[in-house]
C-alpha cells in the first residue's frame, strides 16, 4: 500500500499490518462503509472498521436509543447487527472493492459467541479483528468482559488460540484502572489495543420527567470525552509495549495529534462522523499539513513523543 504523500510518510505498522495512514473510523459510527462511500473515498482511509458483528442477528435495544448531550451524544443501540452470515455476504463483499485495510469488530454474549465469529472470519479478506469487550457477559451476571482483568485475560487468550488474524482488544474506560486491563490483555497475547470505548452516562428529560433513553443509561461519545481518552491512552502507552489505536472525541487533526503524541500508533474518528461525514479525510489532510508545516518527514516520529 502506498503512502498518501511520498514526501511525508503517513504509513504506520500495527502488529505486522501496514496502514497507508493512521486514520480509521470507530466501530458503529460508519456502518461498514457503504453509506459513507457516497461522501468519502474509502481508499483514502487507513482502514475501515466495521460495525460490531455477532454470531446471530441482534435486534438491539428498544427506542429511543440515541440522544444528544452537551459536547457529544449518548447511544444505547445495543449492538444491533444482522449476524455473521449476512455480514460476510454483504459487507465484506462490498469492502473488497476498496484498497484499504479491513478491521472487523466482533461482539458476543459468551466467549463461545465470540469464538464462533472469529472462526467464521478466519478465511475471509479481513486484516485484523477488534474484539469489543464492553459487551455484557451473560455468564458473569452481565458485567462486561472488559471490566474484570481475569475475564479479559481469559477471553483474550481463547480468541488468540483461534484467530488467524492479529487481535485488537477494545478496552472499556468504565474501570478503576485502565492499565490493569491493558496489562491483562497484553499478557494474554493481544496484538494491539484500542481505547477508549464509550463512557457510561445518563440523560433525563425534565419535561417528560423520564429517562431520555429507554435503556436509562447509554454510552457517551464525542468531544466531551476526549481529555479522558487522551489520559487513558497515555497511561496505557506507559504500561504496555503493544500498539494502541486511540479514539474518543476526535474532531480534527489537532485532536488526532494529541492521541498520537500520547502514544497511539493510529486513531479512530467516531461520533464526529455523524456531525460531518468528511471528518476522517479532513483529519488525514490535517496530519499531512502539520507534518509539512513542522518539517516532520515520518508520522512515526510523533508517536509517543510526549513523555
SSE inventory with pairings:
Elements: E1 12-14, E2 17-19, E3 23-25, E4 47-49, E5 66-69, E6 72-75, H1 84-95, E7 101-106, H2 111-120, E8 128-132, H3 149-162, E9 167-170, H4 178-187, E10 192-195, E11 199-202, E12 204-205, E13 210-211, E14 217-221, H5 226-239, E15 244-247, H6 253-262, E16 266-269, H7 272-275, H8 279-293
Parallel strand pairs: 3-16, 4-7, 7-8, 8-9, 9-10, 10-15, 15-16
Antiparallel strand pairs: 1-2, 5-6, 6-14, 11-14, 12-13
Helix pairs in contact: 2-3, 3-4, 4-5, 5-6, 6-8
Write a structural description:
The protein is built from 8 helices and 16 strands. It has 307 residues and is an alpha/beta fold. An 8-stranded parallel β-sheet has the order 3-16-15-10-9-8-7-4. Strands 5-6-14-11 form a 4-stranded antiparallel β-sheet, with no helix packed on it. The longest helix has 15 residues, at 279-293. The chain is globular, with a radius of gyration of 18 Å.
Kindly report the spatial arrangement of strands forming the biggest sheet.
3-16-15-10-9-8-7-4
Estimate the global geometry from the Cα principal axes.
globular
And the CATH topology? Answer: TIM Barrel
Mean pLDDT: 95
The succession of helices and strands, N to C, reads EEEEEEHEHEHEHEEEEEHEHEHH
Q: What oligomeric state is this? A: single chain
Strand content: 15-25%
Query: Could you give the count of β-strands?
Result: 16
* Largest sheet data: 8 strands, parallel
Cα radius of gyration in angstroms: 18 Å
- pLDDT < 50 stretches: 1-5
Measure the end-to-end span: 31 Å
In a nutshell, what does this entry contain?
By secondary structure, the chain is of the alpha/beta class. The chain contains eight helices and 16 strands.
Amino acid at each position: 500500500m502506498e503512502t498518501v504523500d511520498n514526501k511525508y510518510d503517513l504509513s504506520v505498522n500495527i502488529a505486522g499490518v501496514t496502514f497507508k495512514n493512521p486514520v480509521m473510523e470507530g466501530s458503529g459510527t460508519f456502518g461498514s462503509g457503504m453509506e459513507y462511500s457516497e461522501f468519502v473515498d474509502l481508499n483514502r482511509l487507513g482502514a475501515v472498521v466495521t460495525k460490531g458483528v455477532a454470531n446471530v442477528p441482534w435486534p438491539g435495544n428498544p427506542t429511543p436509543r440515541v440522544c444528544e448531550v452537551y459536547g457529544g451524544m449518548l447511544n444505547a443501540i445495543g449492538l444491533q447487527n444482522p449476524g455473521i452470515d449476512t455480514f460476510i455476504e454483504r459487507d465484506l463483499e462490498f469492502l473488497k472493492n476498496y484498497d484499504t485495510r479491513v478491521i472487523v469488530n466482533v461482539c458476543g454474549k459468551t466467549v463461545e459467541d465470540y469464538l464462533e465469529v472469529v472462526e467464521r472470519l478466519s478465511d475471509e479478506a479481513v486484516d485484523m479483528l477488534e474484539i469489543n469487550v464492553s459487551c455484557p457477559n451473560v455468564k458473569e451476571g452481565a458485567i462486561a468482559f472488559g471490566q474484570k482483568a481475569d475475564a479479559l485475560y481469559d477471553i483474550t487468550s481463547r480468541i488468540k488460540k483461534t484467530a488467524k488474524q492479529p487481535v485488537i482488544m477494545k478496552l472499556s474506560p468504565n474501570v478503576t484502572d485502565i492499565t490493569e486491563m491493558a496489562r491483562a490483555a497484553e499478557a494474554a497475547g493481544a496484538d494491539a489495543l484500542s481505547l477508549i470505548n464509550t463512557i457510561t452516562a445518563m440523560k433525563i428529560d425534565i419535561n417528560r420527567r423520564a429517562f431520555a433513553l429507554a435503556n436509562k443509561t447509554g454510552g457517551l461519545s464525542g468531544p466531551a470525552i476526549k481529555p479522558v481518552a487522551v489520559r487513558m491512552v497515555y497511561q496505557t502507552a506507559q504500561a504496555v509495549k503493544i500498539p494502541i489505536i486511540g479514539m474518543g472525541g476526535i474532531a480534527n487533526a489537532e485532536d488526532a495529534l494529541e492521541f498520537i503524541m500520547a502514544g497511539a500508533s493510529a486513531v479512530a474518528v467516531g461520533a464526529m462522523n455523524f456531525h460531518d461525514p468528511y471528518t476522517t479525510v479532513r483529519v488525514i489532510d490535517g496530519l499531512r499539513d502539520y507534518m509539512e508545516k513542522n518539517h516532520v518527514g515520518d508520522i512515526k516520529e510523533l508517536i509517543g513523543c510526549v513523555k
